[in-house]
Amino acid sequence: MGTEIKGMGGKGVVMEGEGEMVMERVKILQVKTGLEVKSGTVMMKGGEIKGMGTGYGVIMEGGTVTMMDKVGISGVGMGVDAKSGTLKMMGNSTIIFTGDYGVKVGSGVASAILTDVKIRGMGKGYGVIMEGGTVTMDGVWISNVGMGVEVKSGTVMMKRGKIEFTSGDRGYGYGVKVGSGVESAILTDVKIRGMGKGYGVIMEGGTVEMDGVWIEGVSEGVEVKSGTVMMKRGKIEFTSGDRGYGYGVKVGSGVESAILTDVKIRGMGKGYGVIMEGGTVEMMGDSRITFAGGDRGNGNYGVGVGVSGGAVTMMGTRIVGTSGGTGTGVYATGTGKMLMSGVWIEGGGKGVEVSGSGMLEMMGDSTIIFTGGDRGYGVGVEVSGGAVTMMGTKIVGSGKGKGMYGVQMTGDGTMV
């Protein structure tokens, strides 16, 4: 049987010296702060810290803290507040918090390593919030939080993880947010799940690499406002949320580049598979976009890919409509530029629509299969502006749209 420290508030254990402290199976109960470390080295093996519903589990202002072998922190407002020093937490340890965050890593922290750790909130707050340093998470499960991981600065690596978030107390939530001060974020084999709305990943800067990331139960899959993003072997399933529409990937005008390889995007009724407003996007490999008709998008129908700016290259991508001939496969407007090679578009009432001053080149045995659906007609390619070049492309009508409009030219568009 280990040692038990029981208070009526106050602090359980304070480490101020330069020495070393080892606690095995120590229980710290009914305190405002379980463990406070200002310097030195503290190792906690097993045991628990249980607060009074508010306060902190651990506060670090320096030194090194290692928690292992099923350390449990519960009954606290904030789990671990690491302002400086080095933090290690591992071995099936858990944090259950009621307030703002599970783990906070301040700008003065050299590194924080979380391995096989469970962090659970009460439907709000942050699982992990990072303001600097280097954070490595392996096998971390974050659940019942408003915001999963927010990285404001520094470098973060997360693999074999799971993030389950709610709408929080702000009406929306997100799985991962990468701020403009971040150097890099690497997510590998991570599952992000919302409750039907909110964002899977929000990126405001830096470089983000995602490999094997699965996002579901969100209204906005990945929003890239700035920086560079690379995603491969991924899956995004999005809903219409409470705003009436959603999207799989949105690339803003401040983005340097976005590369999607072997990524599957599936809409659940409304919105866009991919929205492109600027920057450069490359989509290749066994990538697939599945969209439904819905009631939002181009002409109140769903859109597979919507381009209003920037440059998009798609190679071997499949864009498939699932609502019996409604919706548009590719909608290019504004100043956007698109190059498609070996692309397969089917299931929409319109295969491709080009307007504005945009440019579209389609080649390399690409195929458009369209159907009229409930509107009684369909269009393979509709051009009302911009410039379209098609080489080696097949356009096939089916259903009510068969033989109606393979290519329809209106306005001042140009087609070769």
Automatic annotation (TrEMBL):
InterPro entries on file: Autotransporter_pectin_lyase_C, PbH1, Pectin_lyase_fold/virulence
Protein name, per record: Right handed beta helix domain-containing protein
Natural source organism: Bartonella bovis m02
